[in-house]
Records
---
Amino acid sequence: MFSERPVVIDAKQLSQFIWRQYNSLFGEIKSGKAGFWITDYDETTQAGTIRCAGIVLDELVAALTLLTSINDILVAFDTIKTSGVIDKLPETDSM
Amino acid sequence: MQDRQGMKERLANIREKSGVNFICIRSSNPEVLNFAAKDSRIDIIHLETQPEMQAFSEGIASLASQKGTFIELPFAPLYTTRGSARSKFIRESNKILEITMHKQGRLLFSSDARRLIDIKNAWQRAIVLNLLLDASRQVAREIFFKNPMLLAEHGSKEDVATAGIIDETIVEDD
């Protein structure tokens, strides 16, 4: 996550912001079926991993792309890698 | 640009006079858009506001496709607007995308970034287009990867390119 200034937020709060964005884009029915959670998040580097079902990957990426502010701080999410196997994520070279 | 004659006068030797690589036009007048679509001096037709988007038609898309003129829409309203405003933008963009693809035209989505933080990853933007505007993955890839390359190759041999925008009130470099 890139931001204009550091965003003081933990993984749980971040997940709520993402959830709200997902809900506003795809509605309550879809968000009810979509399960995703942040497996690790480093508050210093603002980088982390989100685990989700394969079928909601695109929707989650879209929600992240359109999420532009957290606590009135402008932010931008960049998806670095995606992988079908979470343990293989550090080894994956491309999207 | 309000009328066709006014546009013709501004277009005379505009590329040489302004020293820009691309000429981009904005107008909510269908006649002006029609003229711009068949004029080879115009590289991009930019549609941003509701009247501009509503002025776009199949005829304009067809002419633009024949002349290789790019149709450009902004990406920013997808994340700067909320609720009904976003729905309206999605509906109008979807209509333009369908018409342009049907006529095999070349569509671009400008990042419309005012700040560095507004610049989005092209892969992510392609996914948004695929989901929100029902563009197929192939079309989304063309819009974000192939068409910008075509435009860059067509307009400039240098690393840096400038675009001149002609709209209803001003002519400026961007």
---
Amino acid sequence: MSAQAGALRSLVDFYATGMRTAVQSQFQYRVANYFWMVGMLAEPVIYLVVWTTVARAQGGELNGITAGQFAAYYIVWTLVRNMNIVFTPYGWEWRIRDGQLSGLLLRPLHPLHYDLAYFAGWKVVVIVLWLPVAGILALAFRPELSPNVAQVAAFALAIWGAYLIRSMFLWLLGMLSFWTTRVSAVFEVFFVGELLLSGRLVPMQLMPEWVQGLAGFTPFYWTFGFPIEALVADLDGRTLVEGLLLQALWTLIGLGLVLVAWRYAVRRYSAVGN
Amino acid sequence: MPAIDVRDLTKTFLVPEREAGLLAAMRSLVRRRQREVRAVDAISFAIEPGEVVGFLGPNGAGKTTTLKMLSGLLHPSGGEARVLGHVPARREREYLRQITLVMGNRNQLQWDLPALDSFELNRAIYRLPRDGFVPMRDELIELLDVGDLVRKPVRNLSLGERMKVEIVGALLHRPAVLFLDEPTLGLDVTMQKRIRAFVAEYNRRHGATVLLTSHYMADVEALCRRVIVIHHGTILFDGPLARLAERFAAHKTISVVVANGAVLDAYGEVVNRDGDRVWLRVPKEETARATARLLAEQEVLDLTVEDPPIEDVIDTVFAQERAE
Amino acid sequence: MTGALRLAWLFFRVGALNELQYRVNFVMQLFHSALALATGLVVLALVFSHTTELRGWSHGELLAVLGVHILMGGAIRVAIQPNMNRLMEEIRDGTLDYALTKPEDAQLLVSLREVRTWQGVELVTGAVVLGYALTRVGGEAGPLDAAAFALLLLVGAAMIYSFWLVLATGAFWLVRMDQAAELFEGVYQTGRWPVGVYPPLLRVWLTFLVPIAFAVTVPAEAATGRLEWTTVVLALAFGAALFAFARWFFRQGLKRYSGASA
């Protein structure tokens, strides 16, 4: 039993060290990080402008969402979008061919820990850099937003849930690179599906019924729409808790799939080399 | 019990084959032709704990493939390997904690941070208790003389300096077995010497088993008492370095300086010339006679009989192999 | 003038021959274009499931804007971006000399030598979407409208080119301009919608700072018969000014470059 406790403590130690390393590294690149963040703003601003225009044309609100609420949705969107950035599935091909993978395989630690810890640390830097950006956006677009304590707490948890779910599923996608280099078609279909089914394009309630139904079978909403709505949509306590539990469920599903896929991927790699 | 025990270890790869031309390209879309390549062909050897063994062979001989199998990166196609009692292919955590694989120019350290920070990360990965980690780290830093380099971001270091700190990072967990794949590749002579001295010292202090591959004979000559020569996936020689020349060298080299700069083709094959000095290659049996003739017929100012450089020996060995 | 055209044709041929080797690129580009188009159409359909017009633009008219956006995007990715990216790289690496020692005009050379023919798929896609959109919009399109459209399309492309040239020339002074390409991608997405939907300040930036309005909205207005002659005059005037400025700025950059590298 104490061996288990020791292992757990070592793992926590690794995450702390890994996150600290990432913070130190990424802080050096704060200018590049800002550039990227600013470039990324075009997308939500466009959506925001378009949907508030539609709302105003319909008399001030659309499906119960006012212009101010749209503004809130898309401003919080920018943070959630940042939390969604994880190791790109395109990066696996590079990892395999560059030889980085050998280095990862030689360590007595599952490489998933390495990515999770590193990107988590990066997120900390990103959250700090994001705050002034959010301030400016709020001044420009006047969001309507007044969450209570429970909602803020749920949001704080939900953004990390989103991070974990997306980490798992993008790792899963990346595993395809072990079998073929022609992966971009699959990746693109995935990303388009995600765009439409996650709440990234619009709040899901604006999507036709059948699309919402379809989205229920996918993890996408839990990586994007749910965290935003936790803060913005005035959900009640029960919905929040259910949502967080579903996030946990999807994380476990993703994790299970990743562990299985990884075993096959390593088997393939060690049969074929690079 | 041997630290490394290899029996009939084999690795075959399936390599896609394709001819040039549009028609062949289209055909290959439908039906892929594959060829089997034996990178490593039923090799066997055993290495005792604490030995430093050199693995010599030209490119494509199977050295790196063997190292990768021994470190668990590749599954053998046949035969078996045991390192420290473990089967490497199983990649057990306990096993990975006792070995290290250092490859020529692979970066395992964080690019933007001082090496010291990467060492901290390795400490966490290998779960090293602090009271063991710190003295080991400091010992390695001192042995490799990188004290002033470890606080600089790794990207600011030269290739040789980077190699040294990478080695520190690779040994922090005090592995019992070191797999070194071309560790001095691309480094200047001073750096090569420093790294060789380090490996020898590390082996002496910690009794680690070292399996080292290299192109540079100087690495092998400086470090390894035993050498395994591999070519086309098979072992050609496994034994003391001294015996290598004995076994394979068919020639000796006579290095001579004559007064009047005469042409010396009659005495043997002229392989090199440097100012007044000429190097002649003669078959081993002829050495005494050629030497006597030179001394008698020419005005010899200086003469030495040398063993051919090991490189030539190796080249001959490989040439022989190819010819068979 | 004919010299420039001849040069352009030569580069195009070489580029095309080079890329036909990479058949895979065509297929991937087709797939990518199809996916992007489908997404764009879905978004429009979604918007119009909730409303009948957007700031005075109908569904068909917005489809026209989408078509022009794709078309212009294709033009940018076929010819403008590859050249400007290469220019920035060469400034950064100091290898611009090769281009400068050729007997042709430097600006012409650095602007025409790179061609990504497979992106041409976007040109076709955009044209098709535009064509379909115009059938939905209906109305009468005479040869004058078609001429105006073609002219404004060219003027718009020339403005985007000039903008890019100014950006790339900036590399002569601030070496780290690589982020620029990514930023542009993001900003260009704003062109998917007519510039009139954006709040006033943004509208001004998207007209005079990054000429998205002239590149996409204005030609779309021409195609759908919403054009006012004042816009045409403004486009021509601003276009000429921007082009002249870009050329002058580029020459300044060259002077600095040859002065700096001894």
---
Amino acid sequence: MSSGYQDGKFAKTDWDQWLAEHAPKFLLFARQQVRYEADAQDLVQDAVVECWRRQAQNTPPAAGQIFATIRRRAIDFSRREGRRAVREATAAEGIPKEWFDSGIEDQERNSLMQEAMSKLPGIYRDVVTLKVWGELTFAEIASALEIPANTAASRYRYGLEELRKHTKQGFM
Amino acid sequence: MTDHELEIFERQLRQVKPAPVPECLQARLNQQRPAEQKPVQVLERSRVRVSNFLRLLQWLTPASAAILLTVAVVWRGDQSGRLNSPDAAAPALKADDIKIHQELISSFDAVARLPSGEPVRFRCQTWMDQVAVSDSSRGLFIENRTPRIEVVPIGYETY
């Protein structure tokens, strides 16, 4: 992390750098938690703001804390979602956002990965996402998802095995 | 799937990067950038100054009340003496006992946020300052009670 955090100041450049580094991971996780892109973006914004405000010092919050907040907010969100109008379904569905960076070379592989990830049961997908792209440890994943660390590890292994079955064409 | 295969597959997965954040979200997040804060030491120093001032005020208030009361009693005694017997000089009040007492009525903590978003805890206390002046030679006893609210900002180390 930048040395700008040391004296309690957090400059604009530090903020931009922090966002560039972390926001894509948060959004990837959020997109897997809710159905609509707009909701996923709202979740990321709310979680980032909430976690920053909770910080006693003006230092960035841990990524695990933000993932945990996104998850909690998504659970609240899904409870309310039942009451949401059909208008959202018609307006937002049918515009699936790409979860992964689709460069020209890897476009096929990445869409295969997205399809495989979306087929994976949520409990495995969460752990795989947090470990591979969130770069959390099993202890941090356990804390974020409120599960034992051993469960996180076993879900990760099972999740990878399932993912590999579905992506054999794209990966060796 | 062996551990080795797992590691290779994991490495391949890591090469797949999450999609970048859309510009609209990027713009929204940029607007939420936390404000730059002054160094903590400066804040603490200002809190200490405020705290010292309030502590001084805690003693000044009853002391000044006692002085004012004494002056008022002396002046009133002087005035009434003049009215009752203009020729005879009334003996001045000689307070032989002054008691200053402070009683804590209530105490509670409140949390507020600085414009920068940092939480600050305030300890709010209500005191009753009591000043009693007596002049046993003239059989006088005067008591004054004044409520006082004291608000002291204190550190908020953990949140």
---
Amino acid sequence: MNKECITYYKYNALGAIMYIKKIILKISFISLILFNSVSISNSADTIKVGTLLPYSGVYTVLGEEITNAMILAFDEVGNSISGKNIEVIKGDTEVKPNIALQKARKLISSNKVDILVGPVSSSVALAVRNLVVQSKTPLIIPNAGANVLTGEKCSKFITRISFSNHQINAPMGTWLAKSGIKSAFLLAPDYAAGKEMMKAFKTNFEEAGGEILGEEYTPFRKTKDFGPYLARVKNSGADAVYVFYAGGEAINFIKQAKSFGLGEVMKLTGAGWTTSPLFIPAQKEAAIGFIGSLNYVPSINTEENKAFIKAYKDKFGRAPSEFAVQGYDSGKVIIKAIESLSGNIKDKDKLAEAISSVSIIGPRGPLTIDPRTNNVIQNIYIFEVVNGDQGPELKVLDTIEAVKSPGEGCNL
Amino acid sequence: MILIQILNALQFSMTLFLLAVGLTIIFGLMKIVNLAHGSLYMVGAYIGLSIFNYTESFWLALIFAPVLTALIGAILYSLLFKHIQNADPMKQVLLTFGLIYIGLDSVRLLWGTMSHSISAPNLLSNSLLVLNEPYPSYRLFVILVGFVVMFTLYFVLEKTKIGAKVRASVDDPETAQLLQINTDKILFYTFALGCGLAGLAGITVAPILGVEPGMDMEVLVLTLIVVVLGGPGSLKGAIIGSLLIGFVDSFGKVYIPQLAQIIIYAVMALTLLFKPDGLYKR
Amino acid sequence: MRAANYNPKLRLQLMIILLLLALISNIFGSYFTRFFIAEITILSIFAMSLDFIASRGGMISLGHAMFLGIGAYASAILTINYGISPFSSTLYTFLVGAIIGIIIGYFIVLLDGIFFIMVTLALGEMFNAWVFTSDYLGGSDGISGILRPNFLILGIDMNNPLIFSFYTILWLLGIYFILTKITDSPLGRNLDAIRQNKDRISAIGGYTKAYKTIAFALSAGVASIAGSLYVQLNGFISPELTHWTVSGEGLIMIIVGGIGSISGAILGATVVHIIQHELSNIINWWMLVIGFGFIFIVLFMKDGLWGLLEQIQKRLR
């Protein structure tokens, strides 16, 4: 075939492709309109729970754990409350506030969900906060810990079932000081949550007589090599280093701290996620000796916890993490709240009130909602990572009961 | 303590060097910036992870991950880059940009989104006493690897016939071809080598930094800065550039943490202002 | 990239078609569609800014998300901290963006294309890192509670997504006309000549650096406007907007749309955003698709969709 033939065919093919493309464009536009303007009918017999969680990206595991456990809670009541079926509609936030906002809009205005559960990240929570409040859609937060969500930006439509950054770290300040630690060096990632956690610890630690010898913040999610910081910490002469890390950073920090022999000259302490059961498989023996605080540890010795761990393991094949527990409790709160209204959830204000009046006994222990801030009141467990039969595990050293969060700037 | 910090900086510099040298060699020869270089670094680490999980041997991972990454590079070259060699360099750069997306999702599909870690081999899991301060011996190993690669490359490029051929292909491809140097073959092997070096960086550093999604872009920018600073195509530039950035970054983090990030960019900006082609020309 | 001897008439035709589609979808669409259209419009403005320096200056930037961020954060700070009206803040952010554009442009416009990409990528990352840790800018949580322009006196309620969507379309049209006017003007011709052969122009006495810096500053200003509108659409701004993937998306949009015609950028923005949105709802591996699609277009469709349209038009003649 000579060149002209080829170009002719090329034009033909290209022309065809372009024509088809134009049609596709038109069709997709029209279908977009139609699909979105036809609202999915709100059957009076279904309770729609929308999730606003990460199902892709770095926090995928957290999103999945929370959702799994919440669905487990629904399954335990046969997936129906007061005779109505529960429908779970998922929205993937991708941990991006603007995407999350899009998905939230869709869930609220197109899918017409009755309750929203989410998010994992506080920046997403802050992004959707106004939308949730304006649309009067009750939001149950199963993770995001920013103090301000049950502080300045609180609302009767927002109920937090997980924790506030303050709640997890403040008790450690007091406890460590009382257990003989006189000085500490703080290390955390440089973003809002890291700073809030350190502040909570610092205030209480200093109040109990402790001294802060140094405070450093590492570039958030960009720090892989803690070498320079570890050298500084080691040189400070503090009795303990107090940290908060999660995800890959937690794994790296613990491993590198061990390789620098940090644990031999001072105590390794911090917010409990740093040695979460999710990361221990990667950290292995390096985690041993870490003292942390969390709102849940697998070794809590109650019937509710044992039953939950077994049920979760049976259904999903692995032991549940603290994130799963938060999802499970969210499910239970929803069930109890709707039952208290006998399934009548038309009135959004009443639904919001019902949610914040719930008290349950979950795998974590007893939970109630603080009426002034809508934040959960729960036990905080101080643990130490010790060597167990199946590898390192979290052993409870102390339980601090009914811990509240100050919630400055909120008065519901 | 300052010795520890120097060692930290040196170790970081070596990591940057392993990455930068691959990128700069490719740039010098093919005049393109492989934006997917970070992706190859990441792929090398993940492949090493799989080898490690399967064989429980770090050494096997260390040897075969770079080889496999080089293989991937060779495939990419034959399928894509070879055909657009003579096209607008911008086009080739855009191509590599598309590869980043493919790399990201492929890794995610094959290995999931969780963070993984590799243990350093038992031989290197302890600490050596350096002037009475314990320092992780694995980090010393990384420094060693960097130096070995550095000297090997230098020796090969400057002192061997093959090296001469490569240098000729970089400096003047047309004359080189006239002299019966098979520039196509050289391009092919050098590209694969560059990719292999990226993979080597990935697996070498994995026991320290872990293996997780997103690791590709974290290093890319710093690597680009090193290459731009040192002068694309220059081995010497890669060495000096990575040492400079490595030390500025490490010491900056310790002594002026708030400005640490900005300082690096400032250094790059200043250099570009006075020496737009980088410190060393090829 | 080829000579910009494209067809102004086709450019206008495309623009009109897209405009009609937008208006129809807006009027007959749902609450959610209107937000979506507004988003596409804002992204189109961003894409136009990228297209402008790519086609008129030969500069491909991988760090332009930084100007989106500058526009967004500046707008947020001006309205919240200084009480400036949202509408004026959008105008001010154009100035802020343009001035910063001049300062940065001065250093980098003469860099060779590949260097330019690397440096803009690095600068974008620097801005991202800074914004993340800056307490003044709200750090990782960003700033929320930003209001939209208040035109209630005129009886227009901007909080209505339909109205705000039209508002963004108006901005799009305005910027489109200004950019096309510049492109067709002597300044535009000059820039195009510079893009084609920088050295030749310098040799005959053209002020290459000055023209390119102006182009860059203009582009920065337009991107800042997009940022300002964005923050008014969503009511909040967080550092994610300045991530390199946003710059990357912009690049994909103009390649898909085809560099060179301003309305091609709008087409590219529309297509890419819709595909991304719909695709991510259906499959998990949409980034893979985008990567392959992008490579395909770079290899085989030099001028993107715009190029195809032109070829169709030629055949239809």
